[in-house]
Amino acid sequence: MNNGSVTATATFSTFLRSPSSVIEMLDEGGDVVLLRRDGEPLRLSKAREAEQEVDTLQALAQLIAASLDDEVCDRLAARLGEPFPWIGLLPPQRQREFVAEFLRTARACASVRRFDRLTSMLHAWKATAEAYADPHLTPDGSDLDYLDTEESADDPRTTS
Length: 160
Fold this sequence. Notes:
6 helices; 52% helix; Prevent-host-death family protein
């Protein structure tokens, strides 16, 4: 397993002109990032290694989820303040809910090998923390109204 390491870069043009030289870089270990002039870089990796990485993530998600109780959720919420500093704006009960939902969603995403939903969930919780940060609201958020489904709203700073 290459741990997602990138060991080489090449231009997309090089890949098109001389694919065997780029494949040779890939065979030396790690992934190859293909740089494109007019687009986002592409990552070239061996399918087996990518599958191993997803399998490992899935196993970790299952292991973490199996070890949860309220006490563990509280400790995990405290430690998540480092990668997600905004979690400190959530009341303790909401922090537990975040941790539980994060782990359930990560576990589900790992099982289908798609992590888009996890990214959406993180954005939604960050938006919730931003709402709790509003000084015009009560600290416990009792005056917040939650939506059952996501709704888009225009940014009031950019609308006329």
